[in-house]
């Protein structure tokens, strides 16, 4: 009697305890040793799981670390809606800056970004799972500001998001010191003032 083929592993059936242990282990090892020295074997040993368990849920260490970074960024960089769009954007951009400089999140995200030029699958995942959802979140908060009359109806919100995030990625990519929180407030003020300026004829 032949054995029936096994069903493909379903990521939704994975153990939440093991998943969290793996993500934590990946971030810890990256912070301790740098992205380049992180291995699936090392993550498995630190998390107390088998390599097979990790490969059942993620294809590469980059995928593991990306999921860990996404969860950390989402939990540490909220975008509130207090009714004051300027203050809310300052809160959000400041929290993103703190995530970039976090000793836990920062090394992992730096390593992921360094891989994008020669890992197309990881580049797609970063854009689809992290960048686009966060950009959409900021865009919607600005759009809510428009609906509330705090921003003009013709403001270019897509460009505004690039203006807000661009300086952070510029400093992150070139390893330049990040702005202090008061400078973040100045940056946001400049962007919001540009959005409210009359359009050039």
UniProtKB/TrEMBL annotation:
Keywords assigned by UniProt, alphabetized: DNA-binding, Transcription, Transcription regulation
Pfam families: TetR_C_11 (PF16859), TetR_N (PF00440)
Source taxon at top rank: Bacteria
DNA-binding region ranges: 39-58
Domain HTH tetR-type, chain residue ranges per copy: 16-76
Tagged with keyword Transcription: yes
Keyword Transmembrane helix in annotation: no
Protein name: HTH tetR-type domain-containing protein
Organism: Streptomyces crystallinus
């Amino acid at each position: 009697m032949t054995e029936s083929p096994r069903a493909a592993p379903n990521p939704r059936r994975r153990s939440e305890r093991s998943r969290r242990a793996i993500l934590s282990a990946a971030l810890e090892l990256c912070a301790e040793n740098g992205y380049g020295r992180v291995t699936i074997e090392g993550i498995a040993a630190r998390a107390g799981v088998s390599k097979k368990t990790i490969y059942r849920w993620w294809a590469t260490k980059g995928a593991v670390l990306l999921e860990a970074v996404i969860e950390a960024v989402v939990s540490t960089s909220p975008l509130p809606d207090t009714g004051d769009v300027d203050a809310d954007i300052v809160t959000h951009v400041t929290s993103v800056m703190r995530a970039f400089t976090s000793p836990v999140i920062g090394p992992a995200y730096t390593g992921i970004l360094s891989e994008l030029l020669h890992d197309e699958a990881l580049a797609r995942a970063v854009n689809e799972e992290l960048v686009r959802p966060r950009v959409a979140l900021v865009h919607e908060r600005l759009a809510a500001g428009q609906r509330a009359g705090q921003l003009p109806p013709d403001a270019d919100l897509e460009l505004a998001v690039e203006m807000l995030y661009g300086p952070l990625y510029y400093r992150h990519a070139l390893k330049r010191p990040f702005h202090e929180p008061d400078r973040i407030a100045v940056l946001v003020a400049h962007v919001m003032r540009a959005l409210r300026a009359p359009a050039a004829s």
